[in-house]
Each structure stands twice: as C-alpha cells, then as structure tokens.
Amino acid sequence: FYQNQRRYVNSRDDAQLLGATTQTQLALDNCRPLATLSNETTTVTLNPCGLVANTLFNDVFTLAANPASTAVDADGVPLAMIEEGIAWQSDLEFKFRQPDGFRHEKCGSCGDANCTCAGDDWSCVEPYQDRDGNCFLYYYPNDDTTRYLYETYPMVVSPLDGVTNEHFVVWMRTAALPTFRKLYGWFDQRIAAGTKLTFEVEANWEVASFRGSKALIVSNNNAFGGKNEALGRHFLIVGVMCLGFAAFFWLKHTFRRRKLADKNYLHFKEE
After folding, report:
1. What is the CA radius of gyration of the chain?
2. Alpha-carbon span 23 to 15, nearest angstrom
3. Which of 13, 80, 90, 154 is a plausible cystine mate for 27, CB 3.0–4.6 Å?
4. How far apart are CA 74 and CA 83, in angstroms?
5. Left (φ > 0), alpha (ψ -120 to 50) or beta: where does 31 sit?
6. Mind listing the pLDDT tens digit for each residue in 9-35?
7. Residue 162: which residues within 8 A CB-CB, separation 6 or more?
C-alpha cells in the first residue's frame, strides 16, 4: 500500500485536523475526490477529508476472551493489550484537535432521565457508552451537513476521541515505503517465552482489490525501537564500506605517502 505516493500524501487538510470547520479552496482541491459525499438530494462534508484520513486501517484486534485461551504474563496475571501511548506525543499535542465547538458531558448514570440527546444542546442520537459503562452526551457542530470520523469508522473511533484517536493519529503519519508497520498496541507486562497469544480479528480493511496483504506481528521493543531488519542491513553495508575506505586510505598513507612540500603538486599559472 503506497502511503508515500505524492497525491496520497497531499490529500489532507491540516487546518481541519486542528479543529477548523471551514476550508480553503486549496484544501478542498487537495482532498478531492474525498472532500464531500453526494447523492441525488444531499451533499455532506467529510471531516476529516482526504485520502489518508478516509483509508484508515480499521481492522480490530483483541485478545481472545475465552477463559481456555486467556494468556497470562510471567507472574500469572492475565495479559492486557494497551492501545494508548502508541502515537507520537507531539502529534497529539500540536496536530490533532476536535472540531471547534465540540463538547461532551458525562452522565451521572446511563439510566438517568437527564441523560438524553433530545433538544438542540446535543447532536448525538443516543448517549455514547464507553468500555467502562459510562455514558456521555456530545455535540458536533454542523452535524446535519458533516460526516465526522466516528461516523465513518465507528468500530475504531469513538465520538469522544474523534481525530485524537491514537490509531487514527498513527495512520496519519504516512509511511515512507510500501511495506510498513503501524503500532496497534503494546503489553506492559513480562511475557514468558513460549506463551501462546490468541487474537480475535475483525477484518474490515480490504486488500484484495490492490493485491495487497496484511498481517498481525508480535515483536519485542526497546529504547531503539522495534525489529527492523532492513535498517540493520543498511547499517552493516555502510559500516563495511567505511571500513573498506579506511583500509584503502591507510594503505595509501603507509606505502604511497605524499611527500611534504612536494613541488610536483604545485601548479603555477603559465605566463
């Protein structure tokens, strides 16, 4: 998948990703053909627009919940995959914000009579319930004429996160090569060698049309990043070349050393 294609890379509106609800003509042109969606009667604006945002990798991976296959760490504690802390902190702070005018409010309880989206104060159809069972009301500006990220990818993005969802932020940092990895989650637990991990996969991202492939990779990580064989090979090649040049110049300096102040190397302008 060529995330490095120039047309693809430019197909985004950075001001919109920072919360702007209006667009310049240049931004609209860059986002086309995914700037708006139209049918015979209505036209809605995509927020965020563009090819990068609207090809978000939306497969969902979860550790198997079956007690018979639940994996545990080295201390016997069930493993939990963390999906926060996967994006660059600078991206979260300076590049992505919810639309100007967005707001949300936590309900006292999901059964509370006041926990309703009725009226003009909220744009939600029904309260959003998170994984912990808490319910929220939320408001998006121009919701009738705009299709927001959480509506396009409800299986990945919640209405509370929107464009600040870390899976989305990771995807928006485009890859330099057609074969690439994107961090999905991590474990902050020691995993014993030989531990079997079973994942449930909701396969939503289609690859057959462009003869692509996708895979779930479990790898170790450290202060210098994850496993990257290509980068290691490049370092070795450059290192060997440097050693070769060093050996060549050492031999030349030892056996064919240039005589100090040799007049043969001086060239005077002919009169």
Report:
1. 27
2. 8
3. 13
4. 21
5. alpha
6. 999 999 999 999 999 999 999 999 999
7. 98, 99, 102, 148, 149, 150
For residue 253, CA distances in Å to 245, 247, 250, 258 come to: 12, 10, 5, 7
What residue spans of 57-155 are helical by DSSP H? 89-94, 149-152
Closest to 56 in 3D by CA, of 139, 154, 145: 154
- Using one digit for the tens of pLDDT, what is the confidence trace for 109-164? 998 888 999 888 999 999 999 999 999 999 999 999 999 999 999 999 999 999 99
What is the arrangement of strands in the sheet containing 103-106, beginning at the earlier edge strand? Answer: 103-106, 135-139, 128-129
Closest C-alpha to 157, from 135, 128, 185, 137: 128
Is residue 99 reached through a cis peptide bond, with omega within 30 degrees of 0 on the bond before it? no
Say how far apart CA 104 and CA 135 lie, in whole Å: 10
State the maximum Cα–Cα separation within the chain, in Å, rounded to a whole number: 103
Q: What's the pTM?
A: 0.81
Distance CA 175, CA 147 (A): 26
